[in-house]
Every structure is written in structure tokens, then in C-alpha cells.
Amino acid sequence: MAELHLVREHPDRLAVIKQLHRKLSIDPEFVRMFLDEARLGVTLHHPNVVEVYEICEDADQCYIAMEHLHGHDLRRTMARMTSLGTPVAFAQALSIARGVAAGLHYTHERTGDDGELLGIVHRDVSPHNVILTYGGDVKIVDFGIAKATIQMSRTRTGVLKGKVAYMAPEQALGEPLDRRSDVFCVGILLWEMTTGRWLYRRRSELETLNAVVHTTPPRPSRMVSDYPRDLERVIMKTLSRSPQGRFATAGELIYALDEVARRHQFTLGSTAVRALMATAFADELAAWQRAQSQGTSLGDHLVAQGASRPIAEINDDDALPSVASFDPPRRLAARYRWPVLGAVAVAGLAAASLVIASHRGSTAAPPTTAVPGRANPSPAALPTGPVLGPAVTPRPRDDDPAHRARSATSPPAKSPPVAGTRAPAAPHAITPAAASTGTATATGTATAPATATAPATVPATVVRPPRRAPGKPSNADLDKLP
Fold first, then answer.
1. Which residues on neighbouring strands pair with residue 463, listed in sequence order?
2. What gap in Å lies between CA 48 and CA 200, rounded to an integer?
3. Per-residue pLDDT tens over the stretch 341-386
């Protein structure tokens, strides 16, 4: 919307003139928005809000005079830290987020002459509008699209204002906003500073808008292994998709951040921000310190630096990676989670059946496998409890002539085992045909095939245990359990 000019108010004091572009000064809507920012800015006086000195308006030009901030915006700072391969420390990120929240809480609490809240909502809390100074100050700037009752211009229904990647879901949907919408944006800043990734930014504005409206933010611990859990809870509460689930005010968020800092002994304040700026812009800070030692004023130094080394534009696509391109190891491991759990369940069931079998061995003879040339096991040797292990298809009745004819020529068909399931109660007798071909027992071990040939017929009768409900053990079985 505007051009920025560095001016020398007097030899020791600098200021910034924000001048509306001439091509926009002919549009009444842009003029009203610009003047709204100026009228709102002159009423705000807080250490974390940029100071506005005065408004200048003539026939065809509009100006805003405000304080000069010697530093860089958060966007450029994060990009520089990414290029250095150095993450932003938790204490530094919390200090910045706390300063932003303090400035917002002040503006949210502003009242008019009648004592009523002005209803100020910034609506554009983004890294571009957070300035960090070399002295460690955190300042919110650009109230050009802020919403307040004192504004002359009103946002029309369906008109989207603000940076898409730093909007609350209700803002992206054109719904009514309140202070909790700004709180959500502080959560985005804190999430990105502590993970080093864009949260909602995608390849296009449409994809970004869709992510803001429909995507649930991933937990920061998926990006950073040693992420503090209490800080994660604060961020996820701040990023609740429903305004009712967030902190009610920015003041509550400040209190929560202070509690996290106290538990982890983080030192918050200007010292942490100064350390961040000294790391990110070591060369620029060293140049200014040399100029100071030579008696050069800040204004002359900035003019010389601007003439010799213009500030390059930042490509947002290269500044930080997007969370959409991140595939954490935990997500890959989830693909194998259920097969592993199924295998563990089968192993546990097999172990349980071994324990039950060993316990029964002290009171009853173990079940024997029918081998050609030997008598079938006696009824007393047949287990009467439920079978633990993979599900099996119940055998047909042994006195069925058709079954006897089929058993003489081929082994009985078995249904495939289902991992982690409990089979219904079934007789544990193994037919001679099954013994001759080799079968899998309930414990998962294979029975070796017998060397002799199975007889052509099966005994006509086999004593079967009494019928019970599938999966229900008898009282005798419960008494035998260790």
C-alpha cells in the first residue's frame, strides 16, 4: 500500500514516513484504510506496538510518521536462521510470542471515551508484521486492516483481508472475528518458530486457504523429537479450530507461556531476542558496532549500508520448508503397527495355550496324536476347554459316512488363520489323515508328517466333549488355571 522513507527528525532521532502509493491515493477505499490505520495507531502506546507520531494529509497525499525500528522483521529473521542451519531456541521463540501477545492484549483491551471496548482485532499477525530490533524489542506493526469500532471503512461481507497463511479458520471463511482470531495467529508464529517449518503455506493460495480451513495442525513433537510436552499443549490449545477451544484472551496465553518458561527455566525477555538477532545478523551487527566506534550516526550508517548493499527480497518458497512435504519416521512406522500388534497377539495367545497345556499335564494325560497302528486317544485324554489360537473351521461329524470317505483320500480343509482372534470351542482331536500330512497346532508349531501310510478308514465313533457356548471355559478349566 505504501512506500517507506527514513527521515532524520533531528541529529539523534530517526523516524519513518509511510506514504500511500500515488496510484492508490485516487481510490477512496485505500485512502480510508490508510487513514484508519493512522487514526488507530495514534491511540496506541505500548512497548510492543509501533509508535505512531502523527498523521499528515494534504490535497493528494497521505502520510503517517512513526518511530524507526533498527532491526528486521520475523520473516527475514527466520529465513536467515534457516540458511544458517540454526534452529530458533525455545526461549527466543517464547520471548517473541510473549511480546506479540502482550501487544495484542493491550490493543484488545482498548476502550473508547464511553468505557466500552473498541473491539480491535489486528487480523494480520504474521512474521512480516513483527519487528525484532537489535536491542531486543518486539514490535507489532501495520494496523492497516485492523478491525475496530472507530474505523470509518468497513470490511464488506465476503471480502478477505490479510495473509492467507496466517489466518484463523473463521477469518478464512468470512465469519465474525474477535480477539481469539489474533490468538490463533500467535499460535501459528510459535509453531513455525519452534519447528522451523511453514504450517499452512502451500504451493498456491488456493491450497493454502484450503489447508487453513480444513487441516488440523500436526503436533510439533512430530517435527522435533525433544519438544517440550507442556509447550506443545499450549500451542495446540492456541491452534484449536474452534474459537471456544482457544485461550479466551492473549493475556491467558501470556500466563501459559510464563508457566512453561518457569518449569523449564527459560529466560524470557529482550536478552533472548538480542541473542537471536546477534546470531542471525552477525555481520550487520558487527558493521554497526564498527560504525559506532568511529563516531558514525545511525542515520548515516543506514544510508551507507543501503547504498552499498540493498536488501534482497526473500523468496517465501525457499525460506522455510512446508509441513506438507514432511513425512516423519513415526508416520512411516505406523504402516507396520497393526501387523506387529497382530503378531504380538498371536504370540501371546500361543504362550497362554502353552501355560494351560503344561498346567493340565499335572492332572490329566496330554492329548496324543492318532498314528496308524495305534488306538485312538481315550476320552479322558481329550481336552474339554476352549482352544486358544487361530480360528479353525469346525469338523463335520465323524459318524458321517461321506466324511469318512473324504478323509480316506485327502486331509480336511482348513480356513486361513486370523491373527489376534479367539477361536470358538472345538474338539482338539487330530484325525489320522491330518496326522499323516502334517498340520499346524494351536501353538503355531508344525506337526511332522508320519512315515506310515494312513488307514483307509477312520473309526466310526469318537467320543465328543459336551457342547458349550463358543469361547466359554468350564468351571474345571477355571480351577486348573494357575
1. none
2. 26
3. 555 555 565 555 555 555 555 444 444 444 444 444 444 443 444 4
List helix spans (H) across 311-441.
316-319, 329-333, 337-360, 401-407, 432-437
Distance CA 218, CA 224 (A): 11
Q: Beta strand pairing status for 13-20 and 62-67?
A: antiparallel
DSSP 374: S
DSSP code per residue over 88-107: PPHHHHHHHHHHHHHHHHHH
* Cβ neighbours for 188, distance < 8 A, ≥ 6 positions apart: 165, 166, 199, 200, 239
Q: What is the residue-wise DSSP string for 151-181?
A: -SS-PPTT---S-GGG--HHHHTT----HHH
d(Cα 48, Cα 131) in Å, to the nearest integer?
Answer: 9
pLDDT in tens, 377-426: 444 443 444 433 334 444 444 555 554 555 455 555 444 444 444 444 44
Please give the C-alpha separations between residue 159 and each of 145, 156, 171, 195, 277, in angstroms, as whole numbers: 12, 6, 10, 32, 37
**Which H helix or E strand runs over 53?**
strand 52-57
CA 323 to CA 211: how far, in whole Å?
A: 11
Q: What is the pTM of this model?
A: 0.65
Three-state SS at 286: helix
Q: Are 50 and 43 in contact (CB under 8 A)?
A: no
The grid coordinates of residue 355 equal: 501355560
What is the rounded average pLDDT of the residues 167-195? 94
Q: What is the residue-wise DSSP string for 407-426? A: HTTSPPP-PPP-TT--PPP-
Element (H, E) at 83: helix 74-84
Residue 9: band (very low, low, confident or very high) from pLDDT cuts 50, 70, 90: confident
Burial of 278: CB neighbours in 10 Å, binned 0-12, 13-18, 19+: middle
- CA nearest to 89, candidates 278, 346, 357: 278
Convert the pLDDT of each residue in 291-322 to its tens digit: 999 999 999 999 888 766 655 555 555 566 66
Decide: 120 and 49 in contact? Cβ < 8 Å: no
Decide: helix, strand or coil at residue 66. Answer: strand
- Say how far apart CA 86 and CA 78 lie, in whole Å: 10
| Region 192-219 average pLDDT | 91
Which residues, including other chains, have CB under 8 Å from residue 219's CB and lie 6 or more apart?
A: 232, 236
- The residues, ordered by sequence, that sit 6+ positions from 462 with a Cβ below 8 Å of its Cβ are 376, 398, 427, 429
Q: How far is it, in rounded angstroms, from Cα 316 to Cα 296?
A: 34
Cα–Cα distance, 120 to 37 (Å, whole number): 11
